[in-house]
Amino acid sequence: MHCHSTISDGVLTPAEVAERAHANGVQLWALTDHDEVSGLGQARARAEALGMTFIPGVEISVTWALHTVHIVGLGISEDNPQLNAGLTDIRAGRTIRAREMADRLEQMGIPDAYEGALPYAANPALISRTHFARYLIAQGYCDTMQGVFDKYLGDGLAASVPMHWSTLEQAVSWILAAGGQAVVAHPGRYDYTPVQFDAFFSQFKDLGGTGIEVVTGSHHPDEYVKYARVARQYGFLASSGSDFHSPKEGKLDLGNVPALPSGLTPIWHDWI
Ligand code: AMP
Ligand code: MN
Ligand code: MN
Ligand code: MN
After folding, report:
1. CB of 2 closer than 6 A to ligand 1?
2. Please, which residues bridge with residue 213 across strands?
3. Ligand number, closest to the Cα atom of 32
4. Distance CA 174, CA 180 (A)
């Protein structure tokens, strides 16, 4: 229920992601590119040709309490005007931010990072920190994606540029307008206090959000247990997904995702 193609910061085309998912035994598959739905047509065509059930998705960038959070929309109708207008606005800030990131990297002794990262972005409108990270690894500045985020690009570090993405209200309302279900992506990645987490989950639920990722490539197994408890506490449906970007990056591959802890209702219960 969560993965990426070349439409955002993945390295395989939507059709190639469909093929890899199918080869790994996936039967129900959602593509969830960042802030962009233009890969869903190709993904659906390939998925259906291979006999998989396809769930159109998106992963929307949100700023909440000065931090970035990601809200996944599942089962969206990708031609919804409200959703598309919102995503177009979010994407508009990325090029300016990428140039600013490159200026900051230059001050840290890494020249020409914008020009270097651009060839990694198959969709230049979606240039992201992941593309910069791939360039910095190729140039030998770091060995791993996590290393780049720990040293240069992570939130609050010298080369990261604070962003105002969408608000939580906007992201959830666009997903609902498009007929989808809103899901909190990888909650274990957010640096909030317990009080902030409670405010965040409560607000998300009040806005009409219905799901939370429990099992994801971004979570340690201890966090499967922790967010299963959160799902039960707030009455959220549980989601899981690899957050696959590339065969060489990330902890989980497509279809190779541990089962949800027991006692949860999967977000896909209506789709199978
Ligand atoms: P952006 O949307 O440009 O801010 O880039 C965020 C993307 O960076 C995420 O979607 C991940 O694919 C990737 N990423 C990899 N490691 C990290 C990390 N430690 N923190 C945040 N993002 C990461
Ligand atoms: Mn990503
Ligand atoms: Mn994410
Ligand atoms: Mn993702």
Report:
1. no
2. 239
3. 4
4. 9
